[in-house]
């Protein structure tokens, strides 16, 4: 398989926050944002793998800023690292200032997707070759996150988590 660059999976979804999508404080429901992120991440994973993809996990979500009613929200997702059949998708959420048009990062998340065949069995995906400094940082950190997840799930011996151990030695 020919390796791909993260930019090839870049997916950008832009939409307004409508009244039916807000809580009593007139901010976007967290669940609505999660759904938007899942859709963008799904498209990014499909662009990378060119296969059917399924959400395997929501690894991290940081709701750092409330997103008010009427905001223009942009969800940017791209594959940060590919393993055998799984892909880590890093998602950045931006809110556009109504008057200046400046975008401010409001939230971020990390999802994991698995590519599957028509019967739902995992299939191999192309590897990732990061290009930018940020892509390289996210690529390197993805292995540490995967090892931590495997250790916590009891699927990896902590002594075998070499990337994690390197953080503490």
Explain how this protein is built.
The protein has helices at 30-49, 133-152, 162-168; strands at 11-16, 52-63, 72-82, 86-96, 103-116. With 169 residues, it is α+β, with helices and mostly antiparallel strands. It has a single domain (6-129), classed as Hotdog Thioesterase (Thiol Ester Dehydrase, Chain A, Roll). A five-stranded antiparallel beta sheet has the order 1-3-4-5-2. The mean pLDDT is 94.
Which structural category do the helix and sheet elements fall into?
A: alpha+beta
User: Ends: how far apart?
Assistant: 35 Å
> If helices are DSSP runs of H or I spanning 4 or more residues, what is the number of helices?
3
Task: Indicate the overall shape.
Answer: globular
- Based on CA atoms alone, the radius of gyration comes out at 17 Å
CATH-derived topology: Thiol Ester Dehydrase, Chain A
Number of strands: 5
Mean pLDDT value: 94
Low-confidence stretches: none
Brief rundown of the structure:
The protein contains three helices and five strands, in the order βαββββαα. With 169 residues, it is α+β, with helices and mostly antiparallel strands.
Name its key features.
hydrolase; HotDog_dom_sf; Thiol Ester Dehydrase, Chain A; HOTDOG_ACOT; 169 residues; five-stranded antiparallel sheet; Thioestr_dom; 3 helices; Acyl-CoA hydrolase; alpha+beta; single chain
Summarize the topology.
Elements: E1 11-16, H1 30-49, E2 52-63, E3 72-82, E4 86-96, E5 103-116, H2 133-152, H3 162-168
Antiparallel strand pairs: 1-3, 2-5, 3-4, 4-5
